[in-house]
Amino acid sequence: MRARAWKPGIMAADPNAWYYCLTHRTVEHGAGCRGADRMGPYPDEAAARHALETARERTKVHDEADEEWDER
User: Fold this and answer.
1) Which of 7, 8, 33 is nearest to 20 (CA)?
2) What residues contact 14, with CB distance under 8 A and at least 6 apart?
3) Using 50, 70 and 90 to split pLDDT, how confident is the model at 21?
4) How far apart are CA 61 and CA 44, in angstroms?
5) Superkingdom, according to UniProt (predicted)?
6) d(Cα 17, Cα 12) in Å, to the nearest integer?
């Protein structure tokens, strides 16, 4: 059996997971827009709905850690 070549952006979506589409600014369940245009997977709709807030919070925490590291 011949292995299939990897292609960027081609990935099967988890049919039970939730995603946040950056293009349409909507929550999607399972297959939807292409993977490069969305965030996830998330365990539930509420988590997907708050994807941007979660990303902002995580970025802030990591930026603060970087600043502390740079001060050493």
Assistant:
1) 33
2) 30, 41
3) very high
4) 23
5) Bacteria
6) 11
Q: Tokens for 17, please give them.
A: 């997971």
pTM, full prediction: 0.73
Report CA-CA distances (Å) from 60 to 35, 47, 53: 24, 18, 11
Which tokens hold the place of 16? 């039970």
Secondary structure of 4-70 as H, E, C letters? CCCCCCCCCCCCCCEEEECCCCEEEECCCCCHHHEEEEECCHHHHHCHHHHHHHHHHHHHHHHHHHH
Residue for token digits 């990591």?
62
Q: What does the block give as tokens for 42?
A: 């998330």
